[in-house]
# Entry
Amino acid sequence: MTTDTRDFATWMGEVQARMEAALARLLPPAGAAPARLHQAMRYAVLEGGKRVRPLLAFAAGEVTGAAPERLEVAAAAVELIHAYSLVHDDMPCMDDDVLRRGKPTVHVEYDQATALLVGDALQSLAFFLLCEKPLADSPAAQIEMVRTLALATGSRGMAGGQAIDLESTGKPLELPELEFMHIHKTGALIRAAAVLGARCGSPLGAREAENLDRYAKCVGLAFQVVDDVLDCEASTATLGKTAGKDAIQGKATYVSAMGLARARELAEDLRRQAHTAIEPFGGRAARLAQLADFIVLRKF
# Structure
């Protein structure tokens, strides 16, 4: 059982601050050549975002007693992949957005060619970090961490989900199709964050690993459902990105498929399922439970 007496907001703020410092340290210095690329990489990653994926990595690491020094590197790798995906998603050839995290998107602040290179460089840096220092108790376990992130990032994960999203623009999707898309586009990297965090500590048994993955799957879907709700209800200033863009572009969302009321009900049901999945962990999963609540009840 955890002996951490900090409230959730304090814990979250401390993890977010730790990750900001870690990312600033792990990214190339702004003045190192090629300086414009490195400046753009830092622009894309630093000073923004909720750091949900690093928070999940740290929370899962509490289940397995992982060292914070390991967790910040694994969490940074996941966050760099996430940042790269946002840079590419915002480009004119994808979602064509001009605002991200309350500031101009990378291709607007710099240019499209630089934005493309920023995404490429952030992705390669993520895998470099997973290989650079010992993050697990055995080389085989660390290789498995690299494999996990690679699968979550590629055509059978995030990139594949984005491809489905682009192909389905302007077309109605049934709920099973929508869930399949978001299990890949959004959920795969969220699940990877939890798995990588847990693998920085003591190995989990097969049943425990299944419980953690079920939790992460529910949280990943809930995150997307709430995102779809907020896209309809929240303002651009609150979100830090263009509100209502999904409806304008004809994107299939949980709100368009179910309506607002049922989408909210689905998010709440996924939160309950997430809590149930981690009950066997007891107090070790307190932060995971709090994160599920934060993800579903957030207003931004």
About this structure: The radius of gyration is 18 Å. Residues 8-297 form a domain with the Farnesyl Diphosphate Synthase fold (CATH 1.10.600.10). The longest helix spans residues 206-233. The longest strand covers residues 99-100.
